[in-house]
């Protein structure tokens, strides 16, 4: 029986493993194995809400092991260490707990088809002091760290009867930085209702720092302008054309020599694939460690290895690269699924074409702005307010439908509404 191994349980990897399990795994046409170093999955675009406490990851996180059981695939917890292309097997590193005790020994897993969907991590561009002093909002653990530090700073301020400010600096004004800036002001509003009556927006000093000429540089200028305006109304200090050259315990230093004080610093200025992916197993990689793929999503040097999501450098027809977005990972998972099934049936594989359905940025409960693209609008249509908010939430619902189906997703939405009544609006622990 064919062994298909998917490494990485992010949005694309988990959706692909689920589809393969429902079809090939259920009919016993192939053994499907998902590998991830964590025990549960959380949709990455939600991390800024986990960081501020607006979202309880204990409710929204999905257990890989339980999901695998329900969708006819196997789950192996572990980290990829090496790929042996000749023997067609991967090596997983041993897994230890925080005390150094061995949880899982080093293992090898054989494959006939391998899919790499490890995703990306924050890129500090080797800026001095960043790794030691900044939080990278690229994992649930980092989001937890931010929430703990944020709550501690608010407690300190409350103990001083509200004298002083909580200074937070966010480097990088892409979607993560912009959404976190807005969500922080929502957190302050919510905290007031939980015994922090001396807190208001004036006690929160958020600096959003962008090296480029405008925030949200990947989006159209009119959306960038609308988001900039909304953030300014909230009280966020937006600094464009400002390059950070150093970080220390007291704050950030810019290229112009200005010091921006901050108790909490977040680095969200770029991404790269994990360092251990560089030239792994002799496969072609680029300068940020992404694996270069053909239009079929197969690696350039091995047709039995597919790559999807942020880990893939995939060139579009116009010569540009597919952007690292959740919608791209979703589309790649669908195309990789079709191509794997075609490969097993000795049929021709189809080229992946990225379809940009637009971009939406949530400014917490204050506003949502973005653009929708497609045949319906015959180009790009700017949307904001309630309509944009509904569409933004629907992106997450699409991910849930891909994993659970329509009926179960509908039930989860109902539970979510009930939890709004039963649970506090902000996770305070």
Give the helix/strand layout:
Layout (H helix, E strand, L loop, with lengths): L1 E6 L3 H15 L4 E7 L3 E2 L5 H6 L4 H4 L1 E2 H7 L3 E4 L1 E6 L4 E5 L1 E2 L5 E3 L2 E4 L2 E4 L4 E2 L7 H4 L1 E2 L3 H20 L6 E6 L3 H18 L11 E6 L11 H14 L2 E3 L4 E5 L2 E4 L4 E3 L2 E4 L3 E2 L18 E2 L5 E2 L2 E6 L4 E2 L12 H19 L13 E6 L3 E8 L4 E6 L1 H19 L1 H17 L7
Parallel strand pairs: 1-2, 1-11, 2-5, 11-24, 13-20, 14-15, 14-20, 15-16, 22-25
Antiparallel strand pairs: 3-4, 6-7, 7-10, 8-9, 12-21, 17-18, 18-19, 23-24, 26-27, 27-28
Helix pairs in contact: 1-9, 10-11
Descriptive overview:
The chain contains eleven helices and 28 strands. It is an alpha/beta fold. The strands form nine sheets. A six-stranded mixed sheet has the order 5-2-1-11-24-23. It has a five-stranded parallel sheet with strand order 13-20-14-15-16. Helix 10 crosses helix 11. The longest helix is centred in the middle third of the chain and has 20 residues. It is globular. The relative contact order is 0.14. About 0% of the residues have low confidence. Belongs to the NADH dehydrogenase family. GO terms for molecular function: NAD(P)H dehydrogenase (quinone) activity. This is NAD(P)/FAD-dependent oxidoreductase. Keywords: FAD, Flavoprotein, Oxidoreductase. InterPro entries: FAD/NAD-bd_sf, FAD/NAD-binding_dom, NADH-Q_oxidoreductase.
